[in-house]
Specification:
By secondary structure, the protein is mostly helical. The chain has one domain. Helix 1 packs antiparallel against helix 3. The longest helix is centred in the N-terminal third of the chain and has 25 residues.
């Protein structure tokens, strides 16, 4: 994969990862609402006025456009496995931003993902 193609794929992947992190940041505002039909309006209201959730959805929308542009230039059998980079980014960012666990098994899994992505990118 050439550098411009890789940059396009990586941009799509990173936008998707940022979207996930923003949704996680905004999701805290919904944690105290019981999931039942009577609370649908309260849930919708909190989502509609929650800037991290809105920004996350915006990142998703932009990432779809970028991803379509990437797929026009890169074989799907190479581009799709690159989405795994998002797992690595999100695991590390969640550890840093949200104090989520990142134990030895997760680190080993991240290592396997990195090796796999490297092998696919070289093919």
């Amino acid at each position: 994969m050439k550098a411009p193609q890789f940059a396009l794929v990586l941009t799509g992947v990173l936008l998707n990862a940022v979207a996930q992190l923003l949704l996680k940041a905004g999701a805290g505002a919904l944690a105290d609402i019981e999931l039942k039909p009577a609370n649908a309006l309260a849930i919708a209201s909190r989502v509609a006025f929650n800037w991290p959730i809105i920004a996350g959805l915006g990142c998703y929308a932009i990432s779809v456009v970028v991803w379509i542009l990437a797929l026009a230039r890169v074989e799907v059998s190479i581009a799709y496995p690159m989405l795994s980079i998002g797992y690595v980014v999100n695991a590390v960012a969640a550890w840093y931003l949200f104090n989520e666990g990142l134990g030895p098994m997760r680190i080993a899994g991240i290592g396997v993902i990195i090796i796999g992505v490297w092998l696919v990118a070289r093919s």
